[in-house]
DNA sequence: GGCTTGATGCAAATTGATTGCATTCGCGAG
DNA sequence: CTCGCGAATGCAATCAATTTGCATCAAGCC
């Protein structure tokens, strides 16, 4: 996965109070584990797998199952998006973070059918034709797009 | 997953000799297990998971691991495509079957982010803009497209 | 027919995800 | 501040889908 686009400078880490506000305003309790997970997602700007999150937070005493549950809770609350890059590993990225935080903008992904590598395509836009029969969210442009094919290395 | 489009009448099952030709011309040995897997894929016109294939062929004495290996071999040989409907279960469908056989035409899929349900969108076409930076296969239209969002039931 | 190498059957292992249950803890009400 | 309720956690285990090891069998070529 290569991010080729230029990024603005990273904002400073969000405050504890801001993270707590975000959790509570989403109907979740502010717990140490959740703050750690959410804080980590604010620091990293790529999708992270559960295993990666555990690697990063496990030696702070956070339990693997708890991290998993919290990722799912955050996804259910709409703070985090669960995403699939084609290799059958769920990854989690911030959708709605603390005010001023950088999070992943919605953009198409390309996934290689051979090596499973993913490429973000933030500059790509699509025009759809013939959407009759598709779910409403397609017509309302509330969709994410994944393109699959062979990457330049595998083709 | 709903197929709303009209289908032509189903062709008769392929002959044993035709299946054998297909295997051998693809560099694979013609074995009983492979013939069974391939024959089944010719009979069913939807993507089938490994588990489904085993359910269908297991009581004929075919081993689960063998069915798996053969599905992977057939996918590698380009006879079968491995596909993902969003629920993290690989499914296999015929790409290049016996002459005269019906197989799945390439078309976009919609996958619901909530329930995981998939919808085929054979009528949908896309126009891409801003493909600079994308892998070459995108520009060459050698891609498959997956749209993700909430289906009408979940939204 | 003999031989080579790929395929199979059987069993087990791996990976990613998910759950059960006893205990702990966040938070709101009084 | 205290208490109680229900949510969250830690620990261990389980589950689902996939994948692999190895001895034996068999397809196919010479």
Helix-strand layout with pairing:
Two copies of one chain form a homodimer.
Chain A: H1 16-25, H2 32-43, E1 48-49, H3 50-57, H4 64-76, E2 80-84, E3 90-94, E4 109-112, E5 118-120, E6 125-129, H5 136-139, E7 144-149
Parallel strand pairs in A: 4-7
Antiparallel strand pairs in A: 1-3, 2-3, 4-5
Helix pairs in contact in A: 1-2, 2-4, 3-4
Chain A binds a DNA duplex (30 and 30 nucleotides) through helix 2 and helix 4.
CATH class of the largest domain in chain A: Mainly Alpha
At the fold tier of CATH, the topology name of the largest domain in chain A is: Arc Repressor Mutant, subunit A
Looking at the overall shape, the CATH architecture of the largest domain in chain A is: Orthogonal Bundle
In terms of DSSP E residues, the strand content of chain A is 15-25%
Proportion of residues in helical segments of chain A: 25-40%
Describe this structure in words.
The structure is a homodimer of 155-residue chains. Helices cover 30% and strands 19% of the residues of chain A. Chain A is of the alpha+beta class and 155 residues long. Chain A has two domains: 16-94, Winged helix-like DNA-binding domain superfamily/Winged helix DNA-binding domain (Arc Repressor Mutant, subunit A, Orthogonal Bundle); 109-149, no CATH class. In chain A, the strands form two sheets. In chain A, strands 1-3-2 form a three-stranded antiparallel beta sheet. Chain A has a three-stranded mixed beta sheet with strand order 5-4-7, with no helix packed on it. In chain A, a hairpin with a 5-residue loop joins β4 (109-112) and β5. The longest helix of chain A has 13 residues, at 64-76. β6 of chain A pairs antiparallel with β6 of chain B, so a sheet runs across the interface.
